[in-house]
Amino acid sequence: MTQAARSPGRGGPETEAAGPDVGPVRVRVAPSPTGPIHVGNMHTAFFNWLFARGRGGAFILRFEDTDLERSDPKFERLIFEEMRWLGLDWDEGPDIGGPYGPYRQSERLPLYEEYARRLVESGHVYPCYCTAEELEAERAEAQRAGVAYKYSGRCRRLGEAERERFETEDRVPALRFAVPGGRVVVIDDLIRGRIEYPTEAISDFIIVRPSGMPLYNFAVVVDDITMRVSHVIRGEGHIPNTPVQCLIYEALGERQPRFGHVGHILLPSREKMAKRAGNAYVGMYREEGFLPEALINFMALLGWTPADGREFLTLREILAEFSLERVTKAPSVFDPEKLTWMNANYIRRLDREELARRCLPFLKKAGLVAESLGEDPPDAAPDPPAGMVRSDFERVVWIVSLEQERIETLKDIVAATEFFFRRDIEPDEAALKMLREAGDILDEALQTYRNHEDWSPTSLEAAGRALVERLGLSGRKVFQPIRAAVTGRVASPPLFDTMAALGRDLCLERMARAVAFTASSSSSRPPPSGADGR
Predict the structure, then answer these.
(1) Where are the alpha helices (DSSP H) in 311-370?
(2) Of 490, 299, 501, nearest to 404 (Cα)?
(3) What is the DSSP letter of 125?
(4) Domain for residue 123, yes or no?
(5) Predicted confidence band at 27 (pLDDT cuts at 50, 70, 90)?
(6) Is the separation of the CB atoms in 112 and 219 below 8 Å?
(7) Which residue of the set 272, 275, 329, 365 is catalytic?
(8) Residue 221: which H helix or E strand, with range?
């Protein structure tokens, strides 16, 4: 294969992919429902969606499910969910139908048979009776000779008598495409420019297995023809498939779509994202609490940049600016740290109530708030889970907003705020160390706040400052033990906002428990809360 911006300069004739006149824009994404959708597949789907939406075209979703053993309806549902989560809709697909369905390959087998028959009748394919053992022997011979394997073509030269003999041996043939010699397949790639493939480098390839199941390169061409696909935008891993597909289009006498191949997505280590790696699946980012708008913004910048180089763009802004002319053929780096940084920025920008609504599923899953919270009238706080503090939605909004500047993902809200929701907390080691050294200070703080009724942040701070003045200590010396007592940790949101959100009863309860702990020389942990569950 070569890439060039000039004529190939070869003696043989050329086969060239379609030019600009390909009719209305119709693009497709065709994942296999054999597992959760991969980041690379979703990135390709996103670029196709942008291309279609920006040109008033159609975006098609279809499933390549001819791997019947591994395909599963549950993965179809996951693909639907993840695409909708990211805001990508489709005009035709397995769930909504369309004029060129069905949209599952397993339901299109008669169509593949029809097109295979056309190729047989036109002499572009031939029956191949080679067994798996015979083909493996050919490969082994090529390996010993140190040359790239290419099918010998022996079944292409079979006479009628030899074919009849194989038939009597009950050999069921595959169908192989007869690749023409002395040709150059030229692809005018929308992203990479001119790509040339000599047909001598292409082995006669199978289009239909002996079982009758079509292979990818044949099925995808039939699907794209019958669904009137105008542009095929996909990853560069498909470049070797393109000349093969161009030959099938030509043999069928059908117009070819325009092709564009986006660069690979790499990890920071410069390795390709492994399909089976946990961080390769879109669903993982959803489960870890990444915002869809952050992930879609991040994916847009993998291989594409807006004219002004901005990093933060809404989906509407991306759609307004996207063009294939600004898509690079170079690989892009999927940097999880940068995605996390971008996600944290998006969290900072959310309205407090919106952030709370998005955090609720994670708080519910952790058992920190009632399942019905957020679904009740504003003045109806549902009963809390066992051992939890009663919380209404407004309290959740307040608590979540205290951590808005500190969390990086929605899932982080669980660890960051659980001390607000659990009645009993277990101080960490740093907090325990501080509590052991601050018994007198905590006792004074407990007496001060027991006599304090106004539990607003401003009033709490005023009482704390007065205590600092009276003890003649620094604010840190006084406030850090209080923080350790009421939160069980030495780092939290601003102390007096935290105390106000916790509420008077819970703060006094925890300070009393901490004082009892510091007074007990035999205990290494704070004593448990009272028998009444408080």
Answers:
(1) 315-321, 336-349, 352-365
(2) 501
(3) E
(4) no
(5) very high
(6) yes
(7) 275
(8) helix 216-226
Angle at 173 between CA 171 and CA 178, to 5 degrees: 145
> Of 389, 421, 453, which marks where a domain is finished?
421
Domain boundary (294, 318, 345) is at 345
Shared-domain flag, residues 441 and 488: yes
Report pLDDT for 492.
93
Distance, in Å, from the CA atom of 6 to the CA atom of 47, rounded to the nearest integer, reads: 28
How far apart (Å, rounded) are the C-alpha atoms in residues 409 and 359?
Answer: 9
Structure tokens belonging to residue 146: 């140190």
For residue 172 the two structure tokens come to 């069921």
Q: Coil, strand, or helix at residue 143?
A: helix
Closest CA to 496 of 463, 461, 466, 462: 461
Collapsing DSSP states into helix, strand and coil, what is residue 378?
coil
Residue 488 CA to residue 479 CA, distance in Å, equals 13
CA 74, chain centre distance (Å): 17
Q: Distance between CA atoms of 205 and 177, rounded to whole angstroms?
A: 5
Per-residue b/e over 207-229, b at no fewer than 16 CB within 10 Å? Answer: bbeeeeebbbbbbbbbbbbebbb
> Rounded to 10 degrees, what is the CA torsion of 236, 238, 241, 246?
-70
On whether both 379 and 405 belong to a single domain, the answer is yes
Side by side, the strands of the sheet bearing 14-16 are 2-4, 193-198, 184-189, 14-16
What is residue 388's DSSP assignment? B
Report cis status (omega within 30 of 0) of the bond before 102.
Answer: yes
Range of 304's domain?
278-345
| Residue 2 backbone dihedrals phi, psi, to 5 degrees | -135, 155
Nearest Cα residue to 481 out of 449, 527, 454, 453? 449
Cα 187 from Cα 42, distance rounded (Å): 25
Residue with tokens 């004739």: 13
CA–CA dist 363, 410 (Å, integer): 9
Interatomic CA distance for residues 514 and 480, integer angstroms: 13
Cα(231)–Cα(52) distance, integer angstroms: 9
Say which amino acid occupies 481. Answer: P
Of residues 470, 460, 82, the one with CA closest to residue 283:
82
* Residue at token pair 């008669």: 110
Q: What is the length of the chain?
A: 534
Same domain, residue pair 341 and 311: yes
**Tens digit of pLDDT for each residue in 173-198?**
999 999 999 999 999 999 999 999 99
Count of domains for the chain: 3
Q: Is 364 a catalytic residue?
A: no
pLDDT in tens, 61-76: 999 998 888 999 999 9
Position 521 pLDDT exceeds 60 = no
List of residues 6+ apart from 393 with CB closer than 8 A: 356, 373, 374, 376, 378
Give the Cα separation of 258 and 190 in Å (integer).
Answer: 7
CA nearest to 42, candidates 243, 364, 250, 300 = 300
The lowest-confidence range among 29-33, 163-167, 240-244, 473-477 is: 163-167
Count other C-beta atoms under 10 Å from residue 414's C-beta.
18
